[in-house]
Specification:
The complex is a heterodimer of chains A (about 80) and B (about 180). Chain A is mainly α and about 80 residues long. In chain A, about 80% of the residues lie in helices and about 0% in strands. In chain A, helix 3 runs antiparallel to helix 4.
Chain lengths: ~80, ~180
């Protein structure tokens, strides 16, 4: 049944995405330099924290008020690698 | 699906890839590339700008000029993707890369999860564009012998350490399995 094999592929894909998101979230939380993050201006700090939790680069960058590259540089300094 | 000889790069890909020492290997895979004008405006620091300039001077990279029509199509694509809550949000510059790639039958090089997942979910919806991230490009470089390394895992570590980009181990394993690199 093509419908059922399609829905099973979709289910596997969504499970995989959830697992990947969780793995990357754990990695960001574990490696982050929290002391550096706490030293950031409040708006940027909140944006970095949001990125650590959600991994949504564009939303976090917009919230930070920085341009994309500046925000990525802050993330690198915070040891929160993009992924 | 065969890989097109032309690529379109977004800003997330550019600002990471150009930090890698072996970045020029890109041009062993693609014969030419485009960067849409709004994407170029997002690149502001010396390292990526220097790489882009070198590639343009060498005739490898061309700026794809903005047009109202393409930008409108990008907005339509964003709205279409927002209807599916499983797809992370995408922004106009990334959407524009997909629009350009669809028009010219190119590969989109991006780290944007929205685009990567939309493509995983329904590749035909973005055809004839093909969507790759740096991990897939690294796997291709290793599989074809263009990037030498002790192992695929070693190549991935080299990229992660130089670029400060973290890959999911699950995704590294999946792409290695798919290309028989284990």
């Amino acid at each position: 049944m093509p419908g059922s094999s399609g829905s099973s592929r979709l289910r596997r894909l969504l499970e995989e995405w959830r697992a990947v998101d969780e793995e990357l979230r754990e990695l960001r939380r574990r490696n982050a330099d929290w002391e550096y993050i706490r030293s950031l201006p409040p708006r940027v700090r909140r944006a970095v924290e949001a990125y650590v939790e959600k991994g949504d680069l564009r939303s976090a960058q917009r919230a930070s008020g920085l341009v994309l590259e500046e925000f990525v540089e802050v993330l690198r300094r915070a040891r929160v690698w993009t992924g | 699906m065969s890989l097109p000889p032309v690529c379109v790069m977004d800003a997330c890909f550019i600002i990471d890839w150009t930090r890698w020492g072996r970045r020029d290997l890109l041009w062993r895979v693609f014969s030419t590339g485009f960067v849409p004008e709004p994407v170029l405006r997002e690149v502001v620091t010396p390292t990526p700008l220097r790489a882009l300039r070198e590639w343009m001077v060498a005739g490898l990279l061309t700026v794809y000029p903005s047009s109202r029509e393409a930008e409108d199509e990008a907005i339509r694509l964003i709205l279409e993707m927002r209807r599916d809550p499983r797809i992370p949000r995408i922004d106009p510059p990334e959407a524009l890369c997909v629009v350009v790639a669809r028009r010219i039958g190119a590969a989109v090089l991006t780290e944007n999860r929205g685009i990567l997942r939309a493509y995983q979910l329904a590749p035909e919806s973005l055809a004839p564009a093909v969507v790759w991230n740096s991990l897939r490009l690294l796997a291709h470089l290793y599989a074809t012998g263009l990037a030498e390394a002790g192992s695929f895992a070693e190549l991935v570590r080299e990229y992660e350490d130089e670029v400060k980009h973290a890959f999911s181990r699950r995704e590294v394993d999946a792409v290695a399995r798919e290309l028989g690199l284990e």
